[in-house]
Amino acid sequence: MSGVRFDERLDALVVTSFPLARQVLHGPGWVSDLAANLRLLAGMGGAEDLPPLMATMLELFADGPVHDRFRELVAPSFSAKRIEALRPWIAEIAAAGVSGVSEVDGPVDLIELLAYPVPVAVIAGLLDVGQEGAELISETAPRLTAVLESDPAEEQLLDAGHAAIDCAMFLLPLLAERRAEPGDDFVSELLRAGDGLLSLDEVLAIILLLLIAGQETTAGLIGNGVLDLLRHPAELAALRGEPGRAGAVVQEVLRLDPPLRTTGRLAATEQWLGEVVVPAGGKVLVDLAAANRDPVRFTDPDRFAPGRADAAHLAFGGGAHFCLGAALARVETEEVLRQVAVRLPELALAEPEPPRRPSTNFHALTRLLIAHPSAVRSPG
């Protein structure tokens, strides 16, 4: 049937149609693919031998009381209203990042100097971990992303485990300090909300998930967004003339170039995907990128068209596992793209095909060189 195929390498059905993807992500009878994640980590010595912190992090992806408690405690800190209140602060970080880019002579790598530093600064600020913490986040978050790959190598998984331990060693004293003297940061909020309900490993695991989602996926989204605008000069000019269009631009970048390609589910009971039967326990991968370009759902699906009527997408997943950091990623990317459009009016690609990271799941650039940006010195 159109919209479903079997991938022998991944040993899973892959869903590519928008309607069937929504069925898997939103419908009953499907559960988070925890079992598959644990199988992927078998290279570390077997699921039973996982470092406790890594195992706990994966448990937060699972359906059931652990996941439900996690969502209930963490969701208020990432509500759209709460994140919107942070927009002026995030805008200042984005402006500082763009100012740094404008001061560099010659070709500039926007991934290195903008797409990564902005999310790192935001996360470090939310956690209130200072410069040392920001440097740790910048170094460890890319290593932790192995747990979200569809087929990670054993050495990647081992390194992810070491990165988790590095983070834990830095965070444990901080958790003790914040428990004794709470502040206004996310760590203090989490400790207050979860007092007596969350174990120390769960608090640490939640922070690690924030590092993965907050840095890696947002950096990928920012890089993809700048590239899409550079390849569509009319849209870049439109955003420069009307910065309020940033929300529509980000919505279309999410649809056309989502930073994550796939998400997995298991059939809790026998399910039908069109004419295909998925047995209980059967693994399904939802190809988010393909579903977001399904011609059945989207008119002219490969065209970059901010403000299109059929803009709703699946880039953040759906259902019980809809991305908690969606609002934060949107606001960060909107503010960066707005600043880039207004304050770097003569952006030009320095290489026609910027390289992408070798990944089965992350759709992100490793480099985005621009030539001699001309800067507007006003705050924009």
TrEMBL record:
<keyword id="KW-0408">Iron</keyword>
<keyword id="KW-0349">Heme</keyword>
<protein>
    <submittedName>
        <fullName>Cytochrome P450</fullName>
    </submittedName>
</protein>
<dbReference type="InterPro" id="IPR017972">
    <property type="entry name" value="Cyt_P450_CS"/>
</dbReference>
<dbReference type="InterPro" id="IPR001128">
    <property type="entry name" value="Cyt_P450"/>
</dbReference>
<keyword id="KW-0560">Oxidoreductase</keyword>
<dbReference type="InterPro" id="IPR036396">
    <property type="entry name" value="Cyt_P450_sf"/>
</dbReference>
<keyword id="KW-0479">Metal-binding</keyword>
<keyword id="KW-0503">Monooxygenase</keyword>
<dbReference type="Pfam" id="PF00067">
    <property type="entry name" value="p450"/>
</dbReference>
<comment type="similarity">
    <text>Belongs to the cytochrome P450 family.</text>
</comment>
<dbReference type="InterPro" id="IPR002397">
    <property type="entry name" value="Cyt_P450_B"/>
</dbReference>
